[in-house]
Design goal:
It is a single chain. By secondary structure, the chain is an alpha/beta fold. It has 17 helices and 16 strands. The relative contact order is 0.09.
């Protein structure tokens, strides 16, 4: 198998200006983010291809002196999917190891281990929900990459994994060795992340190019104050709402009480997404935000539905775990604390709990309903599945049908939330249209490769 590592890079970055070319590690000033990454990748012995815009070639020219065996692909496509595919075809690759340009401490031993597994399993796509932030990669069969490119041609697909899983079911979620799983964040995504990265460069100086990932983990365990510099919250809760004024206050108050009941030191954020409501839902959200410093309100410019709004919340979420509470539901006492403890103890990627179904006298089991509102996920795992954009109806069923093939799912047999039933519930309206959607989900998409 002709396999190569492809790194797509460009100077543009939404949060950190000129990110790949930034020099890190004061007082060590001769290492760029992209240079340090590429040095580490060459240790794999696998060919490394840097895919960059042609008009930025001069900005990356210094790398030719630093890394003599680096290969280059120049292309101006806006879509990372298109650039990845074109680079792979240019160098006649059978499979691509995709690495983002800010995974500065990626481990070459893990790459080689995964490449062997990919070859042995003969899958189309290998990924992992278990990487430490900033150390991940994925391996994609180039033919599969081509199917995804054709399927999404003309669209700017930022999450290549989403496109790949739309065209094949032959995927494998790799169990990264536990020695390489931590809660540390080595990803360079926000300005605060640079603080930790600079500190690591100061500690290891020029050895940063060669120091093992396990050695970095050891150092951060010894100095937790450094590791905590860019630490994200343990839990993200989010609620998407459209014209939910009648119920939203009880929903939000139950979140505040639930957060207050959590164990000491468990940090949380609460994201509220207003889906262009025409009542005073947004006003009530903003009032709640002023009262609580853990709340963020996102206002959609147009009404896009629950599935797409959920993906917007997911894009903004920072927690290790994430749970959606629908606007007309509410957490019951002890529910949030219990399910968070359960997913951590059982080391699962998704947990569906029981709920009170319209009455405190009626319990609905998670294993029977798979109601996504109230379920808790490892956030990175949910990112590997995502909601289907623009799907209006049965988005929870659609998510479960895909998640059950990729994630370790468990069930919590205690009631976590009250699932309100009322005449305006989505499940009680547009019944014929919803039934067509349900049948389409259960029959499976016809766009997969044969």
């Amino acid at each position: 198998m002709n396999i190569g590592i492809v790194v797509c890079s460009r100077k543009e970055s939404s949060r950190i200006e000129n990110k790949p070319l930034r020099k890190v590690g004061f007082p060590v000033k001769d290492q760029t983010i992209i240079g340090c990454l590429l040095h580490r990748l060459t240790k794999t012995g696998i060919p490394v291809i840097l895919a960059i815009p042609e008009n930025e070639a001069s900005d990356y020219a210094f790398l030719k002196d630093e890394i003599t065996d680096l290969r280059y692909y120049y292309g101006d496509a806006d879509s990372p999917l298109e650039r990845m595919y074109n680079a792979a075809k240019t160098f006649n690759l059978d499979a691509v190891i995709r690495v983002c340009h800010d995974k500065i401490f990626i481990d070459h031993d893990l790459i080689n281990m995964a490449a062997r597994l990919f070859s042995d399993l003969r899958v189309d796509y290998l990924f992992s929900s278990h990487f430490t932030d900033g150390t991940g990669f994925e391996i994609i069969n180039v033919d599969t990459l081509g199917f995804a490119f054709v399927r999404f041609e003309g669209q700017k697909i930022e999450h290549i994994s989403y496109a790949i899983k739309a065209v094949t079911d032959n995927v494998h979620n790799w169990e990264v060795p536990k020695t390489h799983r931590t809660d540390f964040r080595l990803l360079i995504d926000y300005p605060v992340d640079l603080n930790l990265i600079d500190k690591l460069f100061q500690r290891f100086k020029k050895r940063t190019k060669d120091i093992s990932l396990l050695r970095i983990f050891e150092y951060l365990r010894i100095y937790p104050s450094i590791a905590n510099r860019n630490k994200h919250p343990k839990l993200t809760i989010y609620t998407c709402a459209y014209n939910a004024s009648e119920f939203i206050e009880k929903c939000m108050d139950s979140v505040a009480r639930g957060i207050g009941s959590l164990d000491y030191g468990v940090t949380c954020e609460y994201i509220l997404v207003d889906d262009k409501s025409t009542d005073d839902t947004r006003i009530k959200m903003e009032d709640f935000q002023r009262e609580h410093d853990f709340v963020k309100v996102i206002k959609n410019k147009e009404n896009i539905g629950l599935a797409s709004s959920s993906n917007i919340a997911l894009e903004s979420a920072k927690g290790k775990y994430i749970i959606r509470l629908d606007a007309d539901d509410y957490f019951v006492p002890g529910g949030l604390k219990g399910i968070l403890r359960y997913i951590e103890k059982m080391e699962l990627e998704a947990v569906y709990p029981s709920n009170y179904y319209g009455s405190l006298e009626i319990t609905q089991k998670g294993c029977e309903s798979h109601h996504v509102g109230g379920a808790i996920f490892n956030r990175r795992s949910l990112n590997d599945v995502k909601f289907t954009d623009h799907l209006r109806g049965y988005e929870g069923l659609d998510l479960y049908e895909r998640a059950k093939k990729l994630l370790k799912i468990g069930y919590y047999d205690k009631e976590v939330f009250f699932y309100r039933q009322h005449d305006s519930s989505m499940s009680k309206t547009n019944l014929e249209e919803r039934e067509e959607i349900r049948k389409g989900i259960l029959d499976g998409p016809n766009t997969k490769m044969a």
